[in-house]
Design goal:
single chain, about 110 residues, mainly beta, five-stranded mixed barrel, 1 helix, 8 strands, globular
Length: about 110
């Protein structure tokens, strides 16, 4: 399917989960261009189990994602990318959009 003029063959999914710690920003060179990336890990709880999701945000979204803090509840939209390096498989979630989900105030009942 098509997103922003780019053909995407990855399954795009939505995830709601908590940040384990604040995002970490770095840069790397792609050809002659310096690219910004922010990495962070989300934890999604299933009953007694937990799933950890390693995420990466690139480009102009990095500045916004750096405003997130540990334990923030966030919604991310993107796809899983898998790569093999030295016989080890790495799975990373490439974030295309995100937003912080504000906690709803719970009224106390007496």
């Amino acid at each position: 399917f098509f997103i922003g003029g780019i053909t995407v063959d990855k399954e795009m999914i939505n995830i709601n989960a908590n940040l384990i710690e604040a995002p970490v920003m770095s840069t790397f060179m792609r050809d002659t261009e310096e690219v910004s990336v922010a990495n962070f890990t989300l934890v999604k709880k299933y009953g007694k189990g937990k799933e950890y999701i390693h995420c990466a945000v690139y480009g102009d979204k990095v500045t916004e994602v750096m405003k997130l803090s540990k334990d923030d509840f966030v919604h991310v939209f993107g796809y899983f990318n898998q790569r093999v390096k030295e016989d080890k498989t790495y799975r990373n979630f490439i974030v295309k959009s995100f937003n912080k989900i504000e906690a709803k105030e719970e009224s106390e009942e007496e």
